[in-house]
Amino acid sequence: MNILLLGSGAREDALAWRLRQSPSCDSLVAAPGNPGIGRWAERVAVDPCDSTAVVALARSRSIDLVAIGPEAPLAAGVGDSLRAAGFAVFGPNRAAAQLEASKGFTKDLCEANHIPTARYKRTETRADALAALPGFGLPVVIKADGLASGKGVTVAETRAEAEAAIGAIGDSPLVIEEFLRGEEASLFALVDGENAVLFASAQDHKRVGEGDTGPNTGGMGAYSPAPVLTAELEARAMDEIVRPTVKALAAAGTPFSGILYAGLILTADGPKLIEYNVRFGDPECEAIMPRVEGDFADLLLGVAQGRLDDVEPKLSDEFAVTVIVAARGYPGTPVGGGSIREIEAAEQVDGVTVFHAGTAYGDSGLVAKGGRVLAVTATAPTFGQARARAYRAVDQIDFADGFHRRDIGWRELERGVA
């Protein structure tokens, strides 16, 4: 196959790395890619949200499969345009991508189909939101309705914090939710429009600071699998949350095709949906891809062609741990241009691959360009070994403007998972 991959982050670097190892992958083109992705694919300077340009690129390279990495092109309808032009696409059309593009859409779908989730209220203006607040206790969750790169959520401990979060969103649609207690975990399912198959589990770390403190980020680290998401809980989540969602979208004439990422909270009453993403998570993807076995490209093509019954996902039993190295100032205004060295030394550690997130080439070599800069990922037979390898690799990297959390996987350490 000739494959086109859209995107430019560490998620796409991990996807490109895995796709390039697939026996069925003859050529791989990335638009626009990044310096890390350039190790595995030809980079082309095309905006992944520009449907016309993406279709033209796919035609010019005789592309057999387009894999869409980020959420923005999906919400913009790039998948619709590619399918209309006759291309096989891994990733949903715009209508189904509303599962991520609109928190309100997803909450309404859950309510209509009795899918377990938090009690909520949709509002359109700041005044409406403030008026709805008394109907919820504290803490309370305030969510921007649209895409927010994983950072549009505030868990307000006080009324003042809730009002400030509402004020920051302004006169725009938002969702107010009751706060649910429990541990969070991520479940990933492959969906071909009608069928849904469990793919992988993971846990990430959204807060910028150790001990899960500070503001939410796009993710400071992750590991896969998530032991807390037992086989029984996975089965419940698939039967009570994922499959009813897939069925509802198909019945509405807007079938979902691609990877469906269910952010779950494991409550005393069982798993409940926090939110959906309509693509691989970042940094979860970086922790999942090293565990993937078999022909990954053929698996994605099977999903794109609606024949999930004919392909079988295979993941190793190994653990993978990803530590994000971010630029100082993130998730606010990150310091850019800092020199990055010794990635090769980091990758000399057994089981380690360093995926590029926000990097570029400058006069002095590789430099930081963005908030999250690198995703250092290690695999090993046990969680403890994978974690130790990841941090050993992080310590090899010379990036004076970078920082990272030292407690990725703290839940497993507390549980004594070795």
Describe the structure.
By secondary structure, the protein is α+β, with helices and mostly antiparallel strands. The protein folds into 4 domains: 2-91, 3-Layer(aba) Sandwich (Rossmann fold), CATH 3.40.50.20; 119-178, ATP-grasp fold, A domain (Dna Ligase, domain 1, 2-Layer Sandwich); 182-315, ATP-grasp fold, B domain (D-amino Acid Aminotransferase, Chain A, domain 1, 2-Layer Sandwich), CATH 3.30.470; 319-415, Glycinamide Ribonucleotide Synthetase, Chain A, domain 4, CATH 3.90.600. It contains 14 helices and 24 strands. Strands 10, 11, 14, 15, 16, 19, 20, 23 and 24 form a 9-stranded antiparallel sheet that branches. A 5-stranded parallel sheet has the order 3-2-1-4-5, with helices on both faces. A hairpin with a 3-residue loop joins strand 12 and strand 13 (213-216). The longest helix has 21 residues, at 231-251. It is globular, with a radius of gyration of 20 Å. The mean pLDDT is 96.
Produce a short descriptive summary.
This protein is an alpha+beta fold and about 425 residues long.
Keywords for this entry:
418 residues; alpha+beta; Rossmann fold; Dna Ligase, domain 1; D-amino Acid Aminotransferase, Chain A, domain 1; 24 strands; 30% strand
